[in-house]
Amino acid sequence: MSEEFSLGRLFSPSSVAIVGASLNPFSGGYQFTRFLIDHGFQGKLYLVNPTSSEILGLKVYPRLTEIPESNLDYVISCIPAEGVLSLLKDCSKKNVKLVHLFTARLKETGRDKETKLQGEILEKARRLGIRILGPNCMGIYYPKLGLSFNHELPRETGPVGGFFQSGGGAGEFVRYAALRGVRFSKIISYGNASDVDETELLNYFTSDSETKVIASYIEGVKDGGKFVEALALATKKKPVIILKGGRGRTGAKLALSHTASLAGSVKVWQAVFKQYGAIMVSNFQELIDQVVAFTFLPPITGRRVIIAGGGGGKSMVSADVWEEEGFELPELSVELRKKIKKQDPEIWDWVRNPIDASLFQGTSLSDIDLLEWISNEDKFDILVANLTQDDPLPKDIWEKVLASNFLRSTVAIRKKGKPVVCIIETGEIGLAEMESWKWKAIAETRRQIINQGLAVFPSPERAARATRRLVNYWTWQENENELL
Amino acid sequence: MSEEFSLGRLFSPSSVAIVGASLNPFSGGYQFTRFLIDHGFQGKLYLVNPTSSEILGLKVYPRLTEIPESNLDYVISCIPAEGVLSLLKDCSKKNVKLVHLFTARLKETGRDKETKLQGEILEKARRLGIRILGPNCMGIYYPKLGLSFNHELPRETGPVGGFFQSGGGAGEFVRYAALRGVRFSKIISYGNASDVDETELLNYFTSDSETKVIASYIEGVKDGGKFVEALALATKKKPVIILKGGRGRTGAKLALSHTASLAGSVKVWQAVFKQYGAIMVSNFQELIDQVVAFTFLPPITGRRVIIAGGGGGKSMVSADVWEEEGFELPELSVELRKKIKKQDPEIWDWVRNPIDASLFQGTSLSDIDLLEWISNEDKFDILVANLTQDDPLPKDIWEKVLASNFLRSTVAIRKKGKPVVCIIETGEIGLAEMESWKWKAIAETRRQIINQGLAVFPSPERAARATRRLVNYWTWQENENELL
Description:
homodimer; alpha/beta; Rossmann fold
């Protein structure tokens, strides 16, 4: 049985036991119980704790071996490290296949005793035929099954899967990406990687049919050669986006104490990523922007953009940032200019790409008309729509333009097969803005646009950067040269 | 009388007439009337329109010369370009000193006739001793007097002043920066710069005592030599942040049709900015981040940061991005480590800079204690506080940590004289989040922290970049070498 299939089966348990389940709301043992109940775990859920009889309405068993079920697929260990060796013995009796060690304070402490204990745990697990996820990690978020490692993660599924060496990073990534409309196949937090490691996880996600895009946060790899081999296979099948943590001087020192990893030189990572077509991002925001791009944009290999919307300053700076990311702005076609002239002889010779929407004020031309006409242009690859509010209008008009007309037009363009990138700047709003119709309208419009399957970014520069990396990847896949 | 004083007097009118005031809510003539009423303009406001008798409750005069006041300081022209020459004649009879031409479609059309008319307007104004702001611009936002060029701009005043060649850009800048806590002395939108231009405005803001930080959006300059002279004077007195629009190939073509400017080579601009200590930013978000930095951070010339808060992945990536922007992370002092050891012998040897807050879970140490202890450290220059929500807690605890303890600690550090940079990721929230206690708590906490005068940024990388440019500027001011 291949490793990949094996991990896939391990990540789909039909029964889960939380050992160290607890009544203390600040404990992992309480929180994991809540996560699985709240996310509607599909299988059987058992709780183990010698001192409680009921937690969150569920019966609690004093010991794993007391659970009447003879096959427990998956155990989440929330007990202190000292108890894990004897827990493994119990697991073996119940035919447990995978133990997730939320349990921490092992090798990442940098101390001899703890490092030794981690080794003993691994050795014993191997002997008993049990796989270990962690220690020092959050485990599995698999919305299809209702497995979760955090509050309020989406219950719907989607195409993004991945593996994160940081549990906090994994949770934050899922929650903030979810606000952008991204949904997930499964996300695995794997911590110290004592057994299940980055290479096995990468191979698994490469073969996982539920995952179309792989996102990852890695601090270090155990076996560079094997990882690169896995990467070479993965990037040919689907985009792989990696946030490498511990790139600097401090990070190299720190990686050991966070997840017991050797960080490796950032230059080596960069060179490998370029050669094998993996997409390297620098921070969590870029990671999220990149999964937004791959979730909502098709494979694009062209770099010609038409930028529409926003006033003169906005369109000017948009043109700058898209050009600086390697895109071109072709001239509008003669046919389009003729159409504009027919509609408004006053401004036709003056409308250019990027299209300054403020020119249309007081004319019989609307940016909506124009967006529809653009859909017939063929000498461009991407429409960039700046859905700006730099000229705030009265409520009725503004809501109409934002929510209805604009949406209609961009959807029309998309039907012609042209990818659309929308920019909506949501701003750092406060309580007062949360009460205002305008910010509510922005939020609602954004949701509607995302629901139509369009890519939405919060600023032109973030949109341009994520789109560049997407185009670079698909170009690399076609040519198999070095990734730009 | 110096140009600077002259502009200062012109920007402080005690009477304003809006010519072309209108009942049509989509017209500039209506909107400027609304802006001045809504922002509580302190002086006398007159409306002129030959076909209306009352607009928004104010009497309307058929012609400027019919206004009983013999001295009108400032006229906002919302009439078509063809009417401006005869308006100027009327202005002269009323001793008008400054005419703001919201009126557009002149030189920016690129057409001979319109270009000629712009020239005639300027010539006539000069002959009559009237200064022209524009054409094709939004004019003056001066909250102290209640002058405004957009809806819902802050009525409170603040230290940021500046001049913007794009009116839409100016409005968007003010509104989004205001959400970040920035307030303004005055912002001037100057469009085609036919008379009042970037050099005169820069000189004015350099001498303006209400302005501590100058922000600008420029597409092109009329006289490079004079502008550089003005820049050399300005940057010695206060920070000057410039967003140069039209940096790329398209921009160079477009600048002409937007504000009739010659854009100039971006390399020349960069070299000049470096030499004279002006801060060049690439987009509106960076411009806003930079005014946040200069509004809330003192003159810092050191590059040693302590990063606290967030889990392991978050602090790791934070360390990376701060290091990549040229900062260093010093080791925590022996004294601090002793304190930690006394409080918790379990983890003391393991707490490093950046400080992984997740280590404190289940210990008697809190990140709050630690922040207070850090305030006694002396071998660092800036505290970076990641106010993260990557480990969402139950409501009561979470609100307390965010809103009370954290604030108390950062304020304590600030009392010791150490600058604090806070990171709060607000996310692209939707309607559902606007209703949720958690996002409301984040918004409220952010407001409280800003009200305490602390600098808040939405991501580590944006914080690090803006702080780097601030440190570069103050270092340049000390050394007068080239700006880093």
